[in-house]
Amino acid sequence: MKWNHDDGTNNMTMEPIIGSALDRSIILKLFKKLMMLTTMAVFALGGCRQQMADQPHQRPLEPNNFFDDGMASRPVVPGTVPRAGRNQNDQRFDSKVDGKLVDNFPFEVSMEVLARGQERYEIFCTPCHDRLGTGQGMIVRRGFTPARSFHDPRLREAPAGHFFEVITQGFGPMPSYANQLSEHDRWAVIAYIRALQFSRNVGLDQLPPEDRAKMKETK
Ligand code: HEC
Predict the structure, then answer these.
(1) Among the four 34, 52, 180, 181, which has the fewest Cβ within 10 Å?
(2) What is this structure's pTM?
(3) What is the pLDDT of residues 85-100, one digit of tens each?
């Protein structure tokens, strides 16, 4: 853009140029101030958030006289779905019924359940108990406390609920697997252990005729 006029009548010729240069530096200063203010505001707001996070609060199960029952924790809303995946009162998955270890499974053991049990067993139990369940897993061979063999007569006799308790709570040097195995998976693993136990202690007469014939052939 050209501000000079040839006839020289416009005395303001240079002013707009100077003016615009001035404007720019003022705008720049203003802009810098604004930036500073914004930065300060961000820090100030950050401070506010900190205070909100520090506000008074109650820990679970702490007493509190605000509510009639004197407890800070509120009762769960009816119909709440538990995070663990089942209602604590649902006894179908418990290892004990009326204080006695159960020896039956809470659901039907299908081939699908056994396959799931084998998969979970091979992931979580073989490092110590080995694939056959004799307790000579790789960790044991490298020096870990020997794991118990599932073919030990005591464990063959032990009710399924005992295995459920051992998996849930751990046993001596063996850690709990409650976080890795859902209750359904624990029962599936136990079903697979039962299959392992059976595989080593089956009588010829317990086999179906075709398998019996095969056994006789290999003999
Ligand atoms: C880190 C090694 C380790 C892993 C993994 C492990 N166990 Fe064990 N387990 C042991 C040891 C060691 C013992 C023997 C403890 C003892 O006799 O004091 C044992 C004992 C047992 C027993 C016998 C308890 C008894 O009454 O004597 C059962 C049942 C058992 N484990 C089941 C399992 C199952 C099922 C898994 C997989 C979910 C598993 N364990 C994974 C180390 C392990």
Answers:
(1) 52
(2) 0.68
(3) 666 666 677 888 888 9
